[in-house]
Each structure stands twice: as structure tokens, then as C-alpha cells.
Amino acid sequence: MKPKITLKDIAKELDVSISTVSKALKNSKEISKDTKDRIKAFAKFYNYRPNNIALSLKNKRTKNIGVVIPDIVHHFFTTVFRGIEKYANSKGYNVIVCISDESFDKEVINMEMLANGSIDGFILSLSAETQLKNDFTHLKELLDQGIPIVLFDRITEEIDCDKVVLNDRVISIDAVEHFISAGSKKIALITTEDYFNVSESRKEGYLQALKNHNIKVDDNLILTLPHGLDNTNLITEFFQNKEIDAVLCVNEIFAVQCMSIIQHFGYNVPNDISIIGFTDGILSKYSSPKLTTIAQHGEIMGENAAKFLIDRMESTEIEDAPFKTKVIDATLIKRGSTINK
Amino acid sequence: MKPKITLKDIAKELDVSISTVSKALKNSKEISKDTKDRIKAFAKFYNYRPNNIALSLKNKRTKNIGVVIPDIVHHFFTTVFRGIEKYANSKGYNVIVCISDESFDKEVINMEMLANGSIDGFILSLSAETQLKNDFTHLKELLDQGIPIVLFDRITEEIDCDKVVLNDRVISIDAVEHFISAGSKKIALITTEDYFNVSESRKEGYLQALKNHNIKVDDNLILTLPHGLDNTNLITEFFQNKEIDAVLCVNEIFAVQCMSIIQHFGYNVPNDISIIGFTDGILSKYSSPKLTTIAQHGEIMGENAAKFLIDRMESTEIEDAPFKTKVIDATLIKRGSTINK
DNA sequence: AAAAGTTACGAAAACGGTTTCGTGTTGATA
DNA sequence: TATCAACACGAAACCGTTTTCGTAACTTTT
Predict the structure, then answer these.
(1) Which one-letter DSSP state was computed for residue B219?
(2) Rounded mean pLDDT of A176-199?
(3) How many Å apart are CA A176 and CA B234, to the nearest integer?
């Protein structure tokens, strides 16, 4: 066991001062070539590496980013996280993850914990509870302290900061129009309770598309599911005694559940009923038929969020740049669960 | 914008020394009640929180854990991670994640980066490349420096440290015996290349079970798939012109791919061919029929790994405790893809 | 009233770096 | 030979804590 070596150790061993060692290792021309060579050789031999903590304290920056997400066992968030990690790493940053578990308190506690010096900035997607409570004082306080925040996907208008979102509304219109162009008229929507701004936008898009094509909205064709339960029965019920020829689902789980139920009733997907889901995850790729889905490009969202944050943290401008919102274009990936002309 | 307040700020403002402030906030009885009250009130008002970095430097411990996993967009690893995060958080630790992306170099670089003071210990699952190269010098060096490491799932015998693994071999035997007890005789195995020790153990279990029941091993019934490609064609080919009545797959993707292909051939699952896969993820739950799977209890593995690490880091024993290996019992979850008596 | 013990606080070192500034020694210049 | 710049290095401050130790100013004991 050989403990980590410090500047002090090197200085003592070579009988020079700590400052000389520090300068030598940074190749300062204040130090003679001879001394530099001695010190460098010694440092290399003992595998000297500067202590990150000491550097953080000195530089008042940790090169750590805090990422707070509601869930990690979730395809979309993991892809976003991968994008964040990738970009951050390429810029020399490390990523500390906290999972809010959809809880307001956990979100607050974790962020306060990290804000006391552990990180230089946050990337965050709001927990369900936070969105429900509409309480963002914790975010405001952090911004007040000068800690930059980037919100993605589950954002709020209440907070002025950089944001990365999907064009949920527009892509929903596209999806519904994809149904319509194949002749569908009775288009259903399966969504979650509205306090998620993303669900809201998707519903808006759905309604807008119907309106654009003079299709009357039928509230019976909209199913709003509660959060976190097994919804199989509700969905089964929903499809009974209804004429439906297409379904837009706000996630791929609903989509694949629909598909099972529909097929179980003896209908054919896509010929009798077409399906589109959000999230181009593993379920969509391995179902049969494969699901037509809306790819959210989580990795790109993550990269963009990380870039926003790092740019802001590293900006030396006296005047802070205005906050930006980046809209990522979702893509409709046409596969076997829809009729694609 | 109100920047973070420090002990020094409080001291100057209240005209006392820094040490007095520090002691007062820790409720030291060296300080008079009057002074303590003044300082506490002031600190509370300005929302004073000690700086984590300064504490880390002083205490020589960061309360950060480094987690290095090959992939994050992967059900098993995310569940393990959730377990780690949960337990670590409950003990006041934060988690820094690095994704090795199955690359040896990334694994090495990330770990060396973090080892310079950023973390107190590692939890790690080896990258594919590392297992292939069989080069563990980076781990040995870290252990040499006194940094504790816990390995999970993708481990190696070469390194002496705490480990958390699944009883892959035994559960594979159980799975195959579940097939046999339903009358299956022609049992196939679909696995990945062998440098994953987990695949190896699963194959051993498969072979052992056949042996136990005097079933002759047929190499044609074992399909070894390369890593990272679309294997649909290989699997389709595999099933052609063969008598197979059961398939054990080392992951749920293979399992669900098999099921699609089998059903596409017009066979019934489970009546004609039964299927069992590893990983009780989203695919297994939402396929039809639902997959009989081997639940790996990732969350429990994660909790155990975190507990091992934190116990070791916090142990004050002079003599280090011997390294332990915790075997997590997998569970066979019987669902629709097998005949369950 | 002198000695001893409390009380309540401050000074300073330490953690491991970086960086500014000062300074003794050299060699070149006037 | 006195002056000055260049060179090569060290001292010390600083980042924000904790903690040991020293010490005035009282209070208590004898």
C-alpha cells in the first residue's frame, strides 16, 4: 500500500520548496531545467497527481455537474443521461446523479446537499410532485446564489434559465396527421394526468391536428391514466364498445399495452387499428409488429443541456448571456404499427 | 444574487474569530450562550451551510462514491444503480457515475480521474474490453493506494476485493429443470461470447442441468451470438430445421426476439416452444405472452454493493476485515412463456 | 491576598494545492 | 567598481473548514 504522494512530500524529498515543485510540474520557466527535470522524474516515478479537492477549493470550481432526474430505470432519462455524461466527460467534467424519485422533498434535499460546494451547476428534470405543487423556491434560491441550472423535458415557465425541450406539440400533430393520411378518423389519445407539461403539450397537438382536419373531438376517445398503477384493465375497458381506428400514446408502455389488448381482441395492428407511441425505446423495437414511435433523441437533449450548462459556467462575460431554450425536433419513426404510404 | 456565506464572513460581521463561529455552530460549550445565540441566529438568517469541499479537504473524505458501469441504457445496470444510489443517499453519500461504454481505456481514465480525491471508493462492473484483455492493473493500483473497490456482476477472480454476484449457475439449472419438468427434451441455449463470466456461468448451469437429467448435450442447440449487432437473422437461421422445444436466453432481448421469430414461424409459445430469459425487465413484462424470466434483483445487488463499500470505508478497525462475496439469489418468475405445473 | 481553577475566546496549524511577491546570487553594463 | 537586470528559488497568502493550544479575565479556594 503506497498512499498518494503530495507536493509537500516531493518538496521534502528533493529538498526544495513546495512552490518550486508546483511550478516545476507546471513547466514554469521560473525554474531551471535541471531542477524541473529532477522534480518531474521524481513525480512521474511516484505517479503524482494533483488532488482534485484541493484544486476545487483553490479554484472555487469542482468540475462536477449535478444531474437530478425523477427516475433512472426509464429509457428516456437514461438516454438523456448518457448524452450529458458523454458531453460533460469530453469537457473534463464529472457527473453526480441524484434521483428524486418523483418526490419534491428528495429533489430539494439532494439539490441543497450538492449546492454546498459539490457541484458547479445543475441539469434537472422536475419531479412529478414538484410540478404538482408548483413550488420552485429551491430553484430560485440556487439561481440567486449564482448556481446555473438547465432544465430539460419537464420544465416550468416560472424559472428563468436555460432549457431544452422537445417539440411535443408539433410532433403530436405530425403523428395524428400520419394517422389521418392513412384514412383514420376515430383517433384516440391515451395520456397521463396533466400536471406533466409534456403530456399537456402532446394533448394540445392531438387536439390541434383534429381541428386542422375538421374532425370533431370526442372526449370518449381520450383516456387519462393515473400515475404508477397497472393500467391494463382501464385500457381494456377503454377499447370496449368503441369505434377506434388509431391510438396515440404518450409513452411506449401504453402503446405496447394497447397493442397487446387490441391483438387479444382479435383485431389487426395496423390494419384495423394503428398505434403510435412516444419514446423509441426497447419495447418499440422488439414488439411485433414493431411500433411506429416518436423518437425523442434523449442523447441529443442531454448533450445540449450539458453544453448549455458548461458554456454558461465557463463564460467569462461580465454581462450574463440571456437564457435560451433549445427545442429538439422529435422524429416520427414509421414502423409496422401504422400504415405508411 | 447573494453569494454563499462563509465562516469568515460571519466572523467579520459579528466581530468574533472564525474559530468562535465554528465552535458556536457546533454547539461547543466553550462558547457562552449569548455568543452562540447571536452567531446561530445570524447563520440561520443568512442560510449558512458549511462548504463540502473544504470539509472534504479537512476530513480527507469526500462522502462521494464512484460508480463505473459499462452502460446505462440497460435495465439491469439501471436497477443496480438505483439500489446503490438509494443506499448511498440514506448514508449521506453522493454518487458520481462514469460510463465505461464497454471500453477499457474509458474505464481506466475515468477511474484515475476520480481517484485523485474525488471519491472515497468505487463500485464497478467490468467493461467487456477489460474482461477480454484480462488486464486489471488499474484496479490493483487503486487498491494499493488504499481506495476500496466493490465489484458486482461482471467480476474477476484476479482482484481481491468485496464482490456481489448472482448465482447464475444455480438459477440456470433451475430454469432448465423447469423446462424439463414440463416435458421438454430439446433445450436450446442462446448466449453471448464467453468472455463475460456471467454468460459462462449460465452456460455451465445449462450443461450441468442437462447432465443431471441424462440429456445429451447437442452443440447445435447452443447459439453464441456476437456482441452489439442485430442478431435477428442469426436467430432465425438457428431455429430453422431444428427440433427445439425450449430455449434459455441469457438476456431478455434474445428471449423476446426468439419469441417473435417462433411465433412468426407459426409455433405457439409456450405449447410448442417454451422460453425463459434473464433479466426481469420491461420487455418481459409487456410481451405476449409475458416472459418467464430470471429476476436478477439488481436493486438488491446495488444495495449490497453500496453497503459493502460504505461499511469498509467507515470501518475503524486497525486490521482490515477479510473480503467477502455476497451471492444474490435470482428468482425464476413463472409467466406465460413456459408451461408451469 | 495569593494560588488555583473556570470561563470564553482567539491564534495558528492543518488539509493540498496555486500564485504573487520578495530576495539572494549571478553576469552584464556603465 | 557600482548599478542593474536576469535567473532561480522560497515565503506566504489564500481557498473554507476543524481543532488544538494558549491566555486574558474572572471566580473560587485556602
Answers:
(1) G
(2) 90
(3) 36
Evaluate whether B119 touches A110 at the Cβ level (below 8 Å). no
Query: Cβ of A118 and B283 within 8 Å?
Result: no
CA–CA dist A315, A319 (Å, integer) = 10
Query: CA-CA distance, B324 to B327, in Å (whole number)?
Result: 10
Within 13 A of A51's CA, how many CA atoms are on the CB side? 20
Q: What's the Å distance between residue A214 CA and nucleotide C12 C1'?
A: 81
pLDDT digits (tens, 9 = 90+) for A54-94: 999 999 999 999 999 999 999 999 999 999 999 999 999 99
Preceding peptide of B226 cis, ω within 30°: no
Note whether A298 and A79 are within 8 A (CB). Answer: yes
Q: Are A262 and A272 in contact (CB under 8 A)?
A: yes
At A276, list the grid cell.
Answer: 403510435
Question: CA–CA separation, A138 vs A147, rounded Å?
Answer: 12
Question: How close, in Å, is residue A301 to chain B by CA atoms?
Answer: 15
CA distance A279 to A76: 7
**What residues of A are in contact with residue B96 (Cβ under 8 Å)?**
64, 94-97
Residue with cell 416560472: A158
Helix (H) or strand (E) run with residue B235 in it: helix B232-239
DSSP B46-91: TT----HHHHHHHHT---EEEEEES-SSSHHHHHHHHHHHHHHHHT
Amino acid at B324: K
Number of helices and strands in chain B (H, E):
14, 12
C-alpha–C-alpha distance, residues A198 and A218, integer Å: 21
* Three-state DSSP state, A152: strand
| CA–CA dist A68, A130 (Å, integer) | 12
Q: Which residue is nearest to nucleotide C13 (CA to C1')?
A: B58
First and final C-alpha spacing in chain B: 68
Nucleotide nearest A50, CA–C1', reads C17
Q: What's the average model confidence in pLDDT over B26-46?
A: 96
Rounded to whole angstroms, the distance from the CA of residue A30 to the C1' of nucleotide D2 is 27
How far apart CA B298 and CA B81 sit, in angstroms, is: 8
Q: Do A98 and B75 touch (CB under 8 A)?
A: no
pTM of the model: 0.95
Q: Quick one: pLDDT at residue B323?
A: 97
**A252 contacts A279 by C-beta, under 8 angstroms:** yes
CB–CB of A247/A188 below 8 Å?
yes
Please state, in angstroms and rounded to a whole number, the distance separating the CA atoms of residues A69 and A73.
11
Greatest extent of chain B over all pairs of C-alpha atoms, in Å: 89
Cα of first residue to Cα of last residue in chain A, in angstroms, is 68
Per-residue pLDDT tens for A149-162? Answer: 999 999 999 999 99
Determine whether the distance from the CB of B84 to the nearest atom of strand D is below 7 Å.
Answer: no
Rounded to whole angstroms, the maximal C-alpha distance in chain A is 89
Say if CB A83 and CB A300 are below 8 A apart.
Answer: yes
Residue pair B337/B291 in contact (Cβ under 8 Å)? The answer is yes
* B97:A95 CB<8 A: yes
Q: Using CB atoms, pick whichever of B82, B110, B114 lies closest to residue A73.
A: B82
| pLDDT, tens only, B228-248 | 778 899 999 999 988 999 999
Sign of CA dihedral B127, B133, B138, B139: positive
Residue environment code for A48-84, b if the CB has 16+ CB neighbours within 10 A, otherwise e: beebbbbebbeeebbbbbbbbbbbbbbbbbbbbbbbb
**Which residue, among A310, A323, A306, A262, has the nearest Cα to A287 in the 3D structure?**
A262
